[in-house]
Write a structure and sequence with these properties.
This protein is mainly alpha-helical. The protein has 5 helices and no strands.
Length: 67
């Protein structure tokens, strides 16, 4: 999915980036950078897993790469 598609799907499900940030103990800005592909690493993978779970999808379905 593109970053725009990820954000649109989150909005459709009523999920705010702030809520994802709270679950992962990061800032909403960090979540935004993960969605845009600007952050990688262990914490970014945790955020990706939370996003995928919230969307009811696998990480690989949402993001090109899980890392």
């Amino acid at each position: 999915m593109t970053p725009r598609e990820i954000r649109a799907n989150l909005v459709l499900k009523g999920i705010k980036q702030r809520e994802i940030a709270e679950k992962a103990d990061v800032t909403p800005g960090f979540v935004s950078m993960v969605i845009s592909g600007y952050r990688n690493g262990e914490k970014a993978l945790e955020v990706k897993k939370i996003i995928a779970e919230e969307l009811g999808m696998d990480v690989d379905e949402v993001f090109d790469s899980a890392a």
